[in-house]
Amino acid sequence: KEFDEKSGGLPSERVMLVASTTSGGKSTLRMNLLRNMYKLNSVSVLTVSLEMNAKKETRRLLSCLTNIPFWKFVKKRLEPDERKKAKREWRRFHKWGVENDCRYSLLCPTRGVTITQLLMMIKPYKYKVVAIDYVSLLEGVDQDNQWRVLGEIVRECKVFSSENHCLVVLLAQLDSETDAVRYSRAMVEHADNAWKWNYTKQEQRDLHVLPIQQLKARDQEIYSFDLKENFAFMQVLNMDDDESHDQTGGGDSDPKNEDDPLSRENVNFDEGIS
């Protein structure tokens, strides 16, 4: 909210870099960011998850949508009413896209892909936002000239963004000691927007606050701001939010799509949904 009010939101085109330390919540922030774009702007968004499979991503999204603790999905401890709630909220989430002609999509490649192969694969679907989680897991990045390869990846994403009129969000690792984006300064130089936060200090984690620093904000003001994390429910919130994401939409009477895995009464939440 603070960023939207001060900067007018993220650009509809260009490349955004999101970097944090290990276990700093990069994937959770990415998921919440795309969820908000999907709901607030009614645009089609895509997450390319190179780190997690569809099952793990789905568990996180369901916890975020339902306000049911994440551990219950992992340990398969959902109560009957929680299972009903998960199916209901999934149908609401899907219904929003149908009614507003937009998609919230997930792609989890099962083999190594280069950035060129990946961008060619997703180009026909015309997403307005594409997030790659995370960039160092792309094929070819483990070469000796890693810094140069990463810089070229950002440059190629920038060209793709301009040609396809979309925002590309790239997730990267932050060095906990130097506070620098790991392996490549060129990534920051080529990006148009860049957020980073160091989440290694225990006192910071005890406050559940993500200290976002903007490294770049082309045509926008550069300033720092805080976000509240609620990782137990896979949520990242505004600092003044008193409760988790409020739920909107219909109830159990929402139309059911027989092709939707969560429309079945005997759904197994360990399978994952894509």
Features of this protein?
9 helices, disordered C terminus, 274 residues, alpha/beta, 19% strand
Morphology call: globular
Could you say which structural class the secondary elements and strand pairing correspond to? alpha/beta
Q: State the low-pLDDT regions, or none.
A: 246-253, 269-274
Strand order of the largest sheet: 3-2-4-5-1-6-7-8-9
Could you tell me the number of beta strands?
A: 9
Helix content: 25-40%
Roughly what is the average pLDDT, rounded to an integer? 87
Beta percentage is 15-25%
Radius of gyration: 18 Å
Helix tally? 9
Overall description:
With 274 residues, the protein is of the alpha/beta class. Helix content is 36%, strand content 19%. It contains nine helices and nine strands. The protein is globular and about 50 Å long. Mean pLDDT is 87; it is low at 246-253 and 269-274.
SSE layout and pairings?
Blueprint: H1 2-7, E1 14-20, H2 26-40, E2 45-49, H3 54-66, H4 70-74, H5 80-100, E3 104-107, H6 115-122, E4 129-133, H7 146-164, E5 167-173, H8 185-190, E6 193-197, H9 202-207, E7 209-217, E8 225-230, E9 235-237
Helix pairs in contact: 3-5
